[in-house]
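Entry 14. Structure prediction run on the chain below.
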Amino acid sequence: MHLDTLEQQRLERSAAPLGGVAKRSFDIGFAILAILAFSGVMLVVAVITKLCSPGPIFFVHERVGHGGRTFACLKFRTMVVDADERLKEHLRDNIAARREFEADSKLKNDPRIIPVVGKLLRSTSLDEVPQFFNVLVGHMSIVGPRPITRAELERYDTAKSDYLATRPGITGLWQVSGRSNISFDRRVKIDATYVRHWSFRQDLEIVCKTPRAVMWRDGAC
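Output returned:
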């Protein structure tokens, strides 16, 4: 690895996250209120998930956070336990699906999703409620780029440094701009735009727009 690359990574890791103390204070306060407000909902979702599909209640997946540090991102499980095997089989037998997955890293008709329950949790974003705990401990922010894997980060090209400059968010400009209806490349541009033109006012506007995006299922899976 070249020295300039190592130096860039060192700077990315040492720089303070976007928004500083003000953004972090808002995150902590909002996360605490949200956890209290959704505690009953989380209990109901946990029970229903367990009854409808054998396996763990939560899905823990590795995502890249501020400065390139990875963290365990929490979600309610919306996929069957043998999801990887089902995906491989589906992509092997379906050329169109394979092209869709290679382009966008997702499928509109995903065979891995738990029938009814999984789709409902995803369309209402209730599967992401446990991420308020990620916000509380400092892995995520209320508003920010969509959490991505290291493999996805490599596809961010020149926007990689923009993503690494802040914590990923539960909601964000991507959430209120079409969610799953937008392509991967478009999402990268939206993430970069958010970071480069960040303001606390913009965060508040995104938070206010999020309920409508969720309620009307704008671009939901």
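The chain has a mean pLDDT of 88.
Filed with the rest of this week's runs.
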